[in-house]
Design a protein that fits this description.
By secondary structure, the protein is mainly alpha-helical. Helices cover 72% and strands 3% of the residues. The strands form two sheets. The protein has a three-stranded parallel sheet. Strands 1-5 form a two-stranded parallel sheet.
Length: 463
């Protein structure tokens, strides 16, 4: 527990250079080149942390002011992802989540039920979070808590494989997959809503990506300019003075401009590792593939992601206030809006209209997920705060706790709801779903390896 707690405390910006240097050397890269790749990724995480902090720090007061001015307060307080992470890692479930999940990942690799090696250790808190909430639902049952976390992990690994080809082609990132459950939980929405939208006559004519928007609307469609406009509108709604309006506009524009530049550092660091990994796998494991599971932070700088995130920030606040039955007002969690789209874009092919609709529907449904989970999230956060004094887990008096990330996730909520409301039957359903997905994935992996081996044999015979 102490070892893995220490690893977590180092953060991605420190551990990623170490991990990538070790991986690079092990696959045959020169030490200097491997170290440089790792440092690029580490610097990328540092830069992303600075930009995210810039966004949350400067938008916290205006968004809070808006909720007060227009009397938008709802009963579920947006604690943001730090509270969810605090709940995840400060319980018995979170203490051993990394070694347990790494062991499961190894077993799934050798049984050919996954191809993803998930080195995105810092996002393991998503699995620990849902496990921790279930842990408190069942009166601190460690067995049920780990069951929920492990099921979420297995499903996510399979989904990372199933989406890997589309992801790699769309972003031109060979050998990379995204085993982060928050992102993967939007894949079913992308499939279902995308299919329905294609049935609407004339909808296909609205095939407008970020570049197409620039052609139609010129400079106004640039994420930089859109960021300035949205920032200024939020400041105006918060009744700020001219200085505040201009400052918030420029800051939001800066965030939109800096994110793509920072995410390029991830690509610069990953590509040498990815290329070398592919070379080694092709040479030593004929017909086999291995995906490196990485953080979705790699691709959140895509123009369509930036445009859709900007538009959805004010829209989802308005939706949260008007939809009946919802008690959650997203404020602190809005900085995580960018992470909604990394897996959606490969299915929408960057179509801004389709991506926006999918995001809006998924987030609106997510509001109800957060509202329903709030009592147990509150119980977990309050217990963590009482035991550790971690201020991130302190729930304000008179409110319940909520967060978009990871409480609004389809995967997380489904696991939580099935286990809370129909316990044993729900657990049985989850086992059936998980095993079925693993078997389907294994069948695809075995088939792909057989075809690749046949291709290699044919090439050899031809030569």
């Amino acid at each position: 527990m102490n070892v893995f707690s220490y690893i977590i405390s180092l953060g991605a910006s420190v551990m990623m250079p170490i991990l990538f240097t070790i991986i690079g050397v092990c696959i045959g890269m020169k030490f200097g080149k491997a170290l440089k790749s790792g440092l690029y990724v580490g610097v990328g995480f540092v830069g992303l942390g600075i930009v995210t902090s810039l966004l949350t720090t400067n938008f916290s007061d205006p968004l809070t002011a808006i909720s007060q001015i227009y009397h938008l307060q709802l009963n579920v307080f947006d604690m943001g992802w730090p509270a969810a992470a605090a709940v995840a890692y400060n319980t018995a479930v979170g203490a051993l989540i990394i070694p347990i999940c790494l062991g499961i990942n190894f077993l799934m690799l050798i049984t050919k039920t996954t191809r993803t090696v998930n080195i995105d250790l810092w996002n393991y808190w998503h699995f620990a979070f849902i496990g921790a909430v279930v842990y408190f639902v069942f009166d601190q049952s460690l067995l049920w808590g780990y069951f929920a976390a492990i099921v979420c992990y297995m499903i996510t690994l399979v989904c990372a494989d199933l989406t890997a080809d589309r992801f790699q082609r769309y972003y031109n990132l060979p050998g990379i997959s995204i085993p982060q459950p928050f992102c993967q939980s939007f894949m079913p929405f992308a499939l279902a809503i995308g299919w329905l939208l294609e049935k609407i006559p004339g909808f296909s004519k609205l095939d407008l990506d970020a570049e197409g928007m620039k052609c139609k609307f010129g400079v106004l469609a640039e994420p930089l300019v859109l960021g300035v406009i949205v920032g200024m509108l939020i400041a105006l709604a918060a009744h700020q003075d001219v200085k505040g309006v201009l400052s918030l506009g420029v800051i939001m524009g800066a965030v939109m401009e800096l994110i793509p530049r920072i995410t390029k550092l991830f690509i610069d660091g990953l590509m040498p590792i990815s290329d070398k990994t592919k070379e080694v796998v092709d040479r030593r494991f004929k017909g086999k593939k291995v995906h490196i599971g990485m953080s979705p932070a790699l691709v959140i700088g895509h123009p369509t992601t930036l445009v859709c995130s900007l538009i959805l920030i004010p829209v989802i606040i308005a939706v949260a206030v008007v939809v009946p039955g919802n008690q959650f007002l997203p404020l602190a969690s809005l900085a995580g809006m960018f992470y909604l789209f990394p897996i959606v874009l490969p299915y929408t092919k960057g179509n801004v209209v389709k991506t926006l609709i999918i995001g809006l529907v998924a987030l609106t449904i997510g509001l109800y997920f957060v509202t329903d989970m709030a009592p147990d999230f509150t119980k977990a956060a309050s217990a963590v705060f009482a035991a550790t004094g971690d201020k991130a887990a302190k729930v304000p008096d008179g409110f319940e706790a909520g967060s978009i990330d990871f409480a609004s996730s389809l995967f997380g909520y489904t696991i939580y709801a099935l286990m809370k409301y129909i316990k044993w039957i729900g657990a049985a359903i989850l086992v059936v779903i998980t095993v079925a997905l693993m078997l389907v994935n294994r069948r695809l992996i075995v088939k792909d390896e057989r075809l690749a081996k046949q291709q290699i044999n044919n090439n050899t015979e031809s030569n």
